[in-house]
Design brief:
Elements: H1 3-13, H2 18-25, H3 29-36, H4 45-54, H5 59-66, H6 72-80, H7 88-105
C-alpha cells in the first residue's frame, strides 16, 4: 500500500475529508489532494507528520499501514525533505522515524 493510500485509509477511519484535513493542518487542499492522489509520492516529513497528527496518529502509524508494499527509497526521500525550522519534539520524531526505516532495511 502507498503512503497516499495509507492516509486515505486513516481518513476513512476517522471520517475526515480532504478539505477538513487541509483546514486542520493548514496544508493547502491542492497539496493534500496531490498526496492522496499520489501525484506527490514523497511528501516532506513535516507535511506528512502534520497530516498524521491531524488524523490522530503518528507518521509511524501511517508507514506501518503502508508497509506491506513499502518502497524504502520513497520513504528515505520523505525523511530527507526539510521545509522549515523544527521543534525539539519534531526532531525527536524525525530521528525515531529514521531509526525505524533503517531497521527495516535489513529485513
Amino acid at each position: 500500500m502507498s503512503l497516499g493510500t495509507a492516509f486515505k485509509k486513516r481518513m476513512l477511519a476517522v471520517n475526515m475529508g480532504n478539505k477538513e484535513l487541509s483546514e486542520k493542518t493548514g496544508i493547502p487542499l491542492r497539496t493534500i489532494n496531490n498526496i492522496l492522489g499520489e501525484t506527490t509520492k514523497a511528501p516532506s516529513i513535516n507535511i506528512a507528520t502534520r497530516m498524521a497528527h491531524a488524523l490522530g496518529c503518528t507518521i509511524d502509524d501511517i508507514v506501518n499501514d503502508a508497509e506491506s508494499n513499502t518502497n524504502y527509497e520513497t520513504i528515505d526521500t520523505i525523511a530527507a525533505h526539510h521545509d522549515g525550522d523544527w521543534t525539539e519534539e519534531e526532531l525527536d520524531e524525525i530521528e525515531r522515524f529514521k531509526e525505524y526505516i533503517i531497521s527495516k532495511r535489513g529485513k
